[in-house]
Each structure stands twice: as structure tokens, then as C-alpha cells.
Amino acid sequence: MLGKSKIQMLSITMNSNGMKNTIHPTLILDEEDVVLIDTGYPGQFNEFQNCFETVGVPFEKLNKILITHQDIDHIGSLSVIVEEFTNKIEVYASEIEKPYIQGEKLLIKITPEKIAKAVASLPADTTDEFRKAFKNRLVNPPKGTVNHIVTPGNDLEICGGITVIDTAGHTPGHISFYHKESKTLVAGDALMIENGQLNPSNPQFTYDIEQSIKSLEALLSFDIEKVICYHGGLFEGNIKERLSEIIR
Predict the structure, then answer these.
(1) Phi and psi dihedrals of 168, rounded to 5?
(2) pLDDT band with cut points at 50, 70 and 90 for residue 16
(3) 3-state secondary structure at position 90
(4) CA-CA distance, 151 to 27, in Å (whole number)?
(5) Does the reported pTM lie above 0.90?
(6) What pLDDT sits at residue 139?
(7) Cα(68)–Cα(66) distance, rounded to whole angstroms?
(8) Residue 186 to residue 177: CA distance in whole angstroms
(9) 181 with 197: CB under 8 angstroms?
(10) Nearest to 37 by CA among 160, 187, 235
(11) 3-state class percentages of the chain: helix first, strand second, coil last, to nearest 5
């Protein structure tokens, strides 16, 4: 790698009750660090192992995890990954999100009313066994230890520099990351790709959609050539122009 860092989008597809769902965690690495951004759903440890193998990175080299926010599809395999490694993995998150990730507070989107609504929204032919497991996962979400608080506006001196950006709205403390060397924005859920187009976070799953869209203004000051969205994957092209359209 000649001292230069590398960024790699991962793709993990799960089939749940007949429905396909693909997520895109991100890997950033250099000669010193292997950094994973977000950790998927519960039970995806093996899928992460396979992803690392596919891109030619030894899984045991992983030493840092950055978490964009508290949602279950971003922290789901955090504790299992950390516990499985003999070397210590440092976990980074925002101050606002930390207590939710650690299980000190109930995940903000998981209220009794929302749990009931989510279960009721399952297809009519969903098995009772799946309904029960689905509800149990919401009632008892995963949790993991955060070792480091990151502050929006600051740079993490790893992999050539990673800037922490406040993109609150999808959750109160949502953050995104800008990898300087590749000019890549790892958006988390601040943005998504739908039908090939860059879009704001899905209002149905967003805590405060107005704040979420307003927070995108901060992205206009960055020289972004690529955007990795957790839901949708890679977007290239007229990024600044598209962001301006969304914000308007």
C-alpha cells in the first residue's frame, strides 16, 4: 500500500422472511490500521468474516470500529466482533449515541408502540416463530462498549485522516465520515440511494427529517468524489449539485 490508505465498500445481503436486504459497511485501511464503519445486523459475524476474505484483508487485523449511529442494523454485530478477537478493538461513536449503543438507554426508535407497529407490518404469511423472534430482537436489542467519543468537526488521525461530520437527524447523534485521501464520504444513513439517485434519509425511519436534511449543508464544504450509503451503496457524479437540490 506504500503508506497510502485504501477504502473498500462491503456488501452484505440477508434474506429475512423472504425479503432481501443489502447493507454496505465500509472498510478503511493502511499499514497501521484496519477500520470498519458500522457492524450490520445481529448474527452477521460470519458474513463480515467472508467479506474481509473476499477483499483480501485478514479479519484478525481489524483494530478499530467507527459507529455512525445507534440503529440495530449498524450496531447489531458489534459486541460479537469485539468479543471474538483476542486483540483489543477500539470502538468510536458520538457522545449522544454512546449511551444507546451501550444499552444504557433504550434505542430511540424502539418504543412499545413502534414495536407493535413493526410486528403488525410483517406480511400476513409470516410465521409465528419469525414474528416472535422479530419482536424479541426489538425488545432486547444488541449493545456494545464504546471506548472513544468522537467530536464532529475533528479529524481522526488514522488512515490518512478521517473527518467526523455532524449529520444529526436520522438519529440525534448521527455522524458521517469523510476519508481525505480517497475524497469519499461514508454517509451512514444520512443519505441513501434509490433507483440510482442520491436521496435524503428515508423519512419513515428518520427521527427528525427536517434536521436530517439541514445537516447535509455541512457536506457542501467538502471535496467529495464518492459517497458510500449504507442503504444503496456507491454514488459518484454530480454530488455537490445533488446535495444542493436535496437541501433546497
Answers:
(1) -60, 150
(2) low
(3) strand
(4) 21
(5) yes
(6) 85
(7) 7
(8) 5
(9) no
(10) 187
(11) 30, 25, 45
Residue 116: count other Cβ atoms within 10 Å of its Cβ.
12
User: How far is the C-alpha of 218 from the C-alpha of 201, rounded, in Å?
Assistant: 15
* Length of the chain measured in residues: 248
Domain ranges of the chain: 6-106+143-247, 108-140
Set of cell numbers at residue 164: 467526523
Helix or strand (DSSP H, E) at 117? helix 112-120
Is the pLDDT confidence value at 158 over 80? yes
Topology given in CATH for the domain delimited by 6-106+143-247: Metallo-beta-lactamase; Chain A (3.60.15)
Residue listed under C-alpha cell 418504543: 111
Distance CA(120)–CA(216), nearest Å, equals 33
Q: What pLDDT, on the 0 to 100 scale, is given for residue 28?
A: 99
Q: Which helix (H) or strand (E) holds 242?
A: helix 239-247
Running DSSP on this structure, what letter comes out for residue 208? -
**Hunting for cell 428518520 — which residue is that?**
206
Residue 64 corresponds to which amino acid? K
Which residues, listed in sequence order, are joined to residue 6 by a DSSP beta bridge?
A: 29
Calculate the CA 65 to chain-centre distance: 11
Using one digit for the tens of pLDDT, what is the confidence trace for 43-59?
999 999 999 999 999 99
**Amino acid present at 106:** L
